[in-house]
Structures are given as structure tokens and as C-alpha cells.
Amino acid sequence: MSFCLIFSSAIAQARTDLKSFVAIPRQALEKAIQQLALQKGRQVIFLPSRLTLQSSKPISGRLAFEDALKQLLAGTGLTFRQTANGITLVEPAKRDKTPSEDLPSYDDSSARAEIVVVGTPNTDLVSFLGDLQLHPKGVSLDGIVDNSVSASAQPGNSGQQAILVRGIGTAGEATTIVYFGDVAVTGPSGTGSDAARSTIDLAMVDIASIQISRTSRGTEHGVGALAGEIEIEPERPKMDTLEAIGTASLSLLDGGNPGLQLSGTLNAPLGPDAAIRLTSYGIRVGGYVDNIRTLDRNVNDDEMQGARAILRYTPATELDMSVMLQWQHRRIADTSLWTRSLGRYRTDRYFSAPTTHDFLLGRLRTQYDFSGIRLTSISAWYRWQLDRNYDRTNATLVQGQDPAACQRYFDLGDQPCDATQMDALEAHVATLTPTLQTLPIVLQRASQEIRFENVGTQGFLWKVGALVDRREEHFRSGLSIYSPDEQEPYDYFGLRQLSINRWQASLFGDWAYRGGSGLQASLGLRYDWHKVSSRNDVLVPNFLSGSAESWPLTIKQSRGIHAKAHIDVPIDQRLALHAQITRSFRPAGVNTAALLVEQLRTFKSDTLWGFEAGAQMRWSPQLSVTIVGYLNRWQDMQYRALQENFAHAYIVNVGTAVIGGGELEVVARPEPHTTIRLAGSLISSRVESVSESGPLGSGAKVGDPIPFTSTVRSRVSVSRKWALGSGRAISAKADMQYQSGYRSTFNREDPLFLATGSFTLFGAEIGYQSDKATFTAALTNIFNAQADLRALSNAFGVGQTLSARPRELSLTWKQQW
């Protein structure tokens, strides 16, 4: 029996299975199931038990997979079901459970210890357990991504975050694409032309699976990515099941406010061919940052409410249609940034500056099978509104000491200010504080994707598709004097209005061969055409920052090729080898910062050449080892630069960098019901060449490492399950994660240089499970360690830090009816 760490990336498997010759001799039933899965190239999950150890019936002949499995299971007390993720679940026939209940989360180590997965995956044979989670227990994307040591979620301001895969991220358009129900969701760029830190913030409630790809899979689907992809698939309606699920969770935070989560799901059939699934949730995450200036405690409370409805209609075997509507409102009372010099989790901002996120998504997905060909159409639209507020008092005071601002204020041209004029400017700036910056942004996006592919699991397979995508961003950036007595800012001393439009058209295709022995090879190509334009209108000139004049429509076009060549070779039942070469592309763009010379008004596209090779070794089922090494060459790397007066951020191409590393995962099962998992990654980066504008991006020099990239990340977990009989069990888990520090700029000579320290976090969990209910108590960051996830200096403050949460105890109850 193989404990194979493999998975399917497809949202749904083929509903029909072509007949082929099957020959399964009499043997232990679990061996027979495994052999059938390998012959048919399908994935099967089951829990080892006395039923799977009984002797099987011999079968032979030209049979479809489902028919052959029915013959194997006849009279054994076992049955099977197909899940929404294309996985076949074998379970006791007497149990009245749905597939989603029986597929435990990959965070649930007690259940994972008993899972046996067999068959041939649709993607890599050499893959990682941490990159797939079925029914994830976490409700935030950053916590879920943390389970994969090569991907990290790095927090930004106002509840936003950047997803880095193998150290690739930091600035510009998002390098890791997040899909929610097949829809690519990317945040707005803002005034800094930086969408990388505006990743989706939807709550992970009633989610079927999350899959992390460490390289771009843009030749297969979607909008394409430079570094990697994260696919989030909500639970689909079940056609023949009426069920309700409720979850309640209470968390107690050391030195902070308590948190609460309530969620509910109703799945209801609507006749024989339709079903609807309704989910709603309310989440409150307690704050822990204290403001020593205003004497307010725990200022960074975070509240979220949302609802989702999915209607599914299958009027015929070959047609599957679904409509999804998702709404979410989020309010963050204040930023989680705190200042090192003031002490742990302390800030001295002049006032709180809340942020609200309002998100509305609609999606129509249609799958139609005809003559062995499947058509998939995905039509999507969403609107994301962010109302962001910042305490910009410190930045305003800094600009009040800027000689260039003084020249603009007194209209001196190139003539420098004297000391009296500089003093007069400082006195004037003091009257403008405390300063509030408001930045309401509205992003609307519409996309249409169509894919054609042949239906099958073996032989020569192909997929071709096209995508049309358009994004529109509109926002106002205003600076005013803050007054707690006024509902609206009453005195703007800087106000501008911006609009950004992006168009994309793509053609993509993937051709693959999958042999019956597990051999896999594929070749993919993708062509992208991009066009981005921006316009800036200054409504109230700001002589401090330099936003004094409007500029006309600026347009930048770019074209790029994505390519992939991949092969998996099974040597025997214990060893599989993997190799892949990729080329990915990120489009050029237009900066929105004021006072930029013409050659910096736009920036070029960047590309990533990648090679990886790996192996997976299995000693079934006691031990599995997966190891991968990779080398990426990042050309014309886009990076964030700051103007001298810190008023605006913009993007430049700093040069070329080389990133190399290795990843390891070991899963051991020394005895039944016990699982040990060790995962680790090592990343080394180096700037290979610097462009003419490279010094603007934190002064990059040849030999410098890439900022915000930890060299070492590792995670160890140990889990155990004790069966109590009658479907009841107790489980326990302990885990430890380590992350080395990193630097905030390319080199130490940069005046904004900061370095974070390494940290180690410990957690523990104990749970009770029955057929219809679970109760879990989890303690995270047991020793209350300070884990700095991001540190930076700019005009808002020196030594600002975003950290992992302090020690937290969570109690969660989940009930199904």
C-alpha cells in the first residue's frame, strides 16, 4: 500500500470513463483497489480497515473504471463516491456520510495518518503534501499558505498581504495568482503601482480544497503568473443531499481582544437536476497593538461578514452549470504596524485610521462534454472597493523639511530657499498636522475564459483555450488636516484623481502524454497581450509632495510568451523522478507617481526562466521522502522605488537576479494512527546585474540578496489518533515552525535598511470527533514569541514591524445535521 503524496489539479474529473482492458487477480482488496487505480490512472482514497484486508474477487475484461470498481467492491461492505475534486472515495456502505465529510483536511493530521492515496495524478508525481489541503481548517489565506514552506504570505498595511513563492514577489503586479472558484482575483495597484500586496482577503469558509503550485501553470488555464498559483475551490452543491453545517469558534489572545467566528452552511437539492449551497459567516479577529499616544488598546481589531450562494444545474450527464455569488465586507480598525523603538506591539500614531473592504463576485461556470471533448466556459465579474485611511502626520512633517518642497511653496524655481524660508515652511506644515490621507479605490474586473480539452486519463491529452480580461481602477488620493470632531475632512491641501485601465488577451495550450505505468510528459505554450493606461488629474495641488500638475493619458503595451516542458518518470513503485523547465512573464506597466522623468513614467515587463528537478521515494506506507531542487533567473526584475521626499512610490526594473534553492518533505508513519511530517526549504538569491534605474530601487548592487526573502523555512508536526469506537476518536497534534530573518533592502548601506531576526513558533491541538460533530482546542505560538514577518522604514516611521499574532487559544465546535 503506497502512501503517495499526489493530487489532482482539476476541479472535476471526467464523468465518463472510456472502456479499456482490466485484469485484477485475486488478492487483498486494498491491493486490488490500488492496482485498478494504477491501471486506470485514477485517484482513490480509503481508510485501511478489516474490510480492505479481505480477499478480492478476480475481474477481467473491457470495463470502465466505475464498473470495474463496482465489481471489486460487490459484497465487501464497501462502496465508493466521486468527490468534487475528482477523487474517488471508498467508504463503508453502512455509513451515511457525504464525500466532503469523509475527506479530512490535510491540516487534520489524525485523519491524514490513515489516508491511503493511490493512482496517477493529473499533475506531478513528485509533489508535496503541504501544497494541497482538503477542507482546510484555517479561515485566513495567510495561515493556510503557511503550511507550504516554499510559499509565504507577507503582510502589508490595511489588511493586505503579498504571496511569495520561492522568494519571488515583493512589488509590481502580483507574481502569485490567486484563483477563487476559477476566477483570478487581484487587488488594485493604488498610488504606488503595486498590486502585489493586495491579495484576496476572502475568508476560507466552506472550502473544498486549496492547491498551491510552485511554478506558473498559465499554459493550462487562467490569466498566467510569474511565480506560482493558489487555487481555492469552494464546496460545490451536492445534488442528492440535504444537510446543514454550523461552526462556532472562540479565541483568547494574550494581551489582546478575544475573537469569535460563526458560520453556517445549508445544502439543499432543488429537484433531481439542481441543488443550491448557501454559506454565511461572521468573524472577529482581536487586536493586540496598543497606541501609547492616544492610550487606546488593541487598536487593530478586524471584523468580517460574508455570504456565498452557489446554484448548480445538471440537466444532462454531459452538462454541468453553476452560478456563484460571493459578498464580503471587512473593517480593520487600524493598521497592525508597530514601532520597535516604542516596545513590543506599541505605536504612537496620532489617531486611528480604519480601512474597509467591500467585495462582490459573480461567476458562471459551464462544462459540456461531447464526443470525448470537454468545453469549459468561465464568465466572471467582481467589484472590490477599498476605503483606506492613513495617519500621514510623520510623512507630512518630513516633507516640511524638504528643500524642493520649499522651492515649490515659495515658487522660487531653481533658486534654493534660505534659512528663514525653510523655517516658514516648517511652521506652515505644522499647521497641516495631524494629517489624514484618504485613499478610496474602486476596482472592477470582467473576464471570459474558454477551454477545450479531450476527456481521458491516459494516452495523448490536449487542452487549448483563450482568455479576455479587463480591469478598471478609479481612486482619489487626498491629504487633509485631521479633526476628530468632523465627519469629513474639511481642509484638503492635496487631492488628485487617478484611473488605470488594463486589458489582456491570451491564447494557451497544453499537450501531454500519460502512460499506464505513470510516465507523464507535457509541453505548454501561452501568448499574452497586455495594454495598460493611466490618467492623473490634480484637483488640489500639493506643493509638499510635488503633486501639483496633472498629466495626460499614458499608455504602455507589452507581449510575452509563457512556456513549460515537464516530465515525470516512475522508476519503480518506490521511486519517481521529475524535471521541468518553465518560462513565465509579467506585463509592463505605467507608474502613477508625480515628479517622474519621462523614462520612469513606464516600466518594462520582467521574465522568469526556471528549472527544477526532483524525486519522490516511498517505503509504503511507513516513509515517504520528496526532494526538489530549482534554479530561477529573474530578468528585468520589477521593484518598488521611493522618491527622495518619500511622497510617492513607483516601479522600476532594477536588473537581473538568480534564485536557487531546495525543498524537502518527509512523511513517516512509525505506527498506525501516528504521523510525523518534516518540511523545509532553502533559498539563496543574488543580484547578477543592475540596470541604469537599479540604484533607485533600494540601491541594488551586484551580489546583493533579494529583500524580504527568508533563507531557511522549516516545519515539523507530529500527530496521533486514538479510536474510541462507534465513529468516535480523539486526536492530538504538535507542530513547530522555524523561519530565518531577512533584510528590507538590497544592501546594508541603504538608509532604510532593516533586518528581521529568526523565530521559532510552537503550536498544539487536541480534538474530539464523532460522526456528526467535532470539537477542537488549539494553542498557537505557545511561548508567545515575537515573530517579525515584515519590517520596513519610510516616511510613515522608522523601524515599523508587522508580526505574527501573540499566544492564542482557540476553541472550535463544528456540528452537522
Q: How would you portray this structure in words?
A:
The chain contains 9 helices and 42 strands. The protein is mostly beta strands and 817 residues long. Helix 1 (29-40) runs antiparallel to helix 3. The protein is globular and about 100 Å long.
Largest sheet: 22 strands, antiparallel, barrel
SS summary, helix count: 9
Rounded to an integer in angstroms, the radius of gyration calculated over CA atoms is: 27 Å
Roughly what fraction of the amino acids lie in strands? over 45%
User: What is the overall pLDDT average?
Assistant: 86
Distance between the termini: 34 Å
Helix content: under 10%
What oligomeric assembly is this protein in?
A: single chain
Q: How many beta strands in the DSSP annotation? A: 42
Low-confidence stretches: 1-16, 95-115
* Apparent shape: globular
Structural class: mainly beta
